[in-house]
Amino acid sequence: MTTLLIYAFTSIILFSIGLFGLVSHPNLIRKIVSLNIMGGGAFLFLISLAYHGRSPDIDPVPQAMVLTGIVVTISATAFALCLTRRIREKTGQCLLEHCPDKPET
Amino acid sequence: MPELLILVPFTGALLCFLFPGHIRDVIGLLCAVLTFVASIILTGNIYQNGPIRLNLGGWKEPLGIGMCVDGLSVLFIFLTGIVGLLVSLYSVSFFSKANNQSLAKHFWPLWLFLWGSLNSIFFVSDIFNAYVVMELISISAAALAALSGTNASLIAALRYFLLAMAGSMAFLLGVGFLYAQTGTLDMYLLGAVTDGGPLMAMALGLMTVGLIMKTALFPFHFWLPPAHGEAPAPVSAVLSALVIKGSFYLLLRIWCTVFQDTTASPQTATLLGLLGLTGVIWGSYQAIIQNRLKLIIAYSSVGQVGYLFLLFPLVFITLDPAWKIEAWTACVFQTISHGLAKAALFLAAGNLIHATGTENLKSMRNIADRLPMTTFTLALAGVSLMGLPPSGGFVAKWMLLQSILASGQWWLAAAPILGGLLTAAYIFRILSQAFVSDDQISCCGHVSFVMEKSALLLAIFSILIGFRSKEVIFLLSEQVYFVIQGGIIP
Question: Alpha-carbon distance B396 to B472, whole Å?
């Protein structure tokens, strides 16, 4: 049980670090990396559930969930990076704050 | 039938990627019509025969992917079907205009993907699949919000997407907690677990926070107005009418099916109600002081979403089961009528912006003369939003007010009363400009027949739903899977 607790606390700490980074960093790339750290926390928690002592075997369901989750996160990250690239091409910086009133043509 | 509702839009989306030009429009429209027909048939089936449960590929839970269709799901499917079909019709005309033509290439695949994912979320019976489907919705919705490619829309879309991702991560961690506690992912097996330990309470908290971020409840509403305001008209209509309802639907499922009364504490429910009340007032106030037409309508969504959250204190604190059911029905009814009215408003706004070339409220003068049909649409949808009889909004607010008074939580009554007045203020602010005649402003471009009529039909539906409230109430109170405590037998 204590091993599971160590994993659980580590993953909560990772999740919180990611959340803090997402809120506090203005740079978009850093925000996206922070989101991935949050995801890492959630995945670590899920994967640590695979061996929980309810049965001697390793539970495959959490592993399947983490695999699916990683695929989802990769595509979401790719999409967010694409948007960031477009924003950088248009405004010259990777920030959410820069928002001109007139939409450009 | 439920499989078709997912298969048809996804196949259509893939085909739209492959084919060029007008073939794309034809495929898109064909899929829209097919999906619409399938949603109507499914709604009729559930209305007559009660809820069904399917296991894809014959695999039973916990291995397979289960789908559950009950009265609550089909109402949302029905809403998505009507709004989807009319928005598709509108977009054929909207994207055939010269300056929008390049957008159609990306609009059709993304929109059909979004439609398919929305249909999937209404069938989902497994909390992990719910997470995956939610991500599908966020990705396609954010891509649609960025469709016009302007600086402001790109930034708004990315802000929405980052927030939605953070919400999904919180939801996923909640899924982990639930699995750690119970060892199952199926919503109905989870609902049978009655001991609400601290892990369950944390899971409920994380999932609720994740979902209210996506539903744009008051403190998390800041992403909504730019994202919905900057998108092209059909996209804003879909985002406001359907996408935020997807996450609200999941929230209802989580609270009513998975956790029920054992874990949900009255304090949390009261907090959600309080946030909803604040959202109603703040969103409507912001809508009044905006000067851009689409921003007014977008802020109005923030206000109208607030009503939906009154459901939590009313259903989870009230003791009398009859009033619980009334509050539950009222809030879901509000979701449906808001969806129809808001889609109509955004499409009508699209017509006005198309005709005048700007979205400043001042340039909306002379509109009543030149575009009477669109002005009528604005007014009809406004009637439903304000909650004047006999519209759908009226039925919802009437039942809401009744159940608030019966439950004794009188402070919640401020939401329907103040909210109605504030809504009237911003609707009349738009309409009063429309009737001012101003010789200096020369109006207007031509708006196609289809664009005017599809917006009008949506507005008419938002009124008509008020006449069919008996059927809606029947679906919501008799044909649902879960038990609202002490009340309904599944």
Answer: 11
If we measure between CA atoms, which residue out of B295, B306, B388 comes closest to residue B341? B388
> What whole-number distance in Å separates Cα of residue B224 and Cα of residue B215?
9
Q: How many CB atoms lie within 10 A of CB A24?
A: 10
**Per-residue confidence (pLDDT) for residue B317, from 0 to 100:** 81
- Of residues A38, A105, A42, A36, the one with CA closest to residue A77: A36
**pLDDT tens digits along B18-69:** 887 788 889 999 999 999 999 999 999 888 888 888 887 777 766 677 888 8
Pure H helices in B183-196 = 187-192
ipTM: 0.92
Cβ pair B151:A69 closer than 8 A: no
The number of CA neighbours under 13 Å toward the Cβ of B354 is: 26
* Chain B residues with beta carbon closer than 8 angstroms to that of A71: none
The nearest alpha carbon in chain A to B185 belongs to A61
Chain B nearest CA to A103, separation (Å):
6
* A69 interfaces chain B, CB cutoff of 8 Å: yes
Structural domains of chain A, ranges and CATH numbers in brackets: 2-91 (1.10.287.3510)
